[in-house]
Amino acid sequence: MIPVEIKKSGPSELTVSWDDGHTSIFGIKYVRSECRCAGCVNEITGERMLDPESIPREITVTAAEHVGRYGIRFSFSDGHTDGIYTWQRLREICPCPECRLP
Predict the structure, then answer these.
(1) Is 65 among the domain residues?
(2) Is residue 44 classed exposed, middle or buried when 0-12, 13-18 and 19+ CB atoms within 10 A define those classes?
(3) Is residue 102 part of a domain?
(4) pLDDT band at residue 100 using 50, 70 and 90 as cut-offs
(5) How far apart are CA 55 and CA 31, in angstroms?
């Protein structure tokens, strides 16, 4: 699945419209907390290094950049710019009830 549109839909919200008609609405703090870069997740153990409670409640996205044809890199207002969110990963973390079903 590939996004057809990614937009900031509020000061603390991102909306992703997918090519299969699905729409994902993400809290920006949630997206930031799901970063899997080496600074946020230990590359060897897979242990999360980032404490989600340390992320400012009012965090926002200040910029976004496509990475190849497979993902996006967000710049967050807390200065974090290292994570790459693949299209697959973005869909996996969709918080809607439909996507949360086992």
Answers:
(1) yes
(2) exposed
(3) no
(4) confident
(5) 11
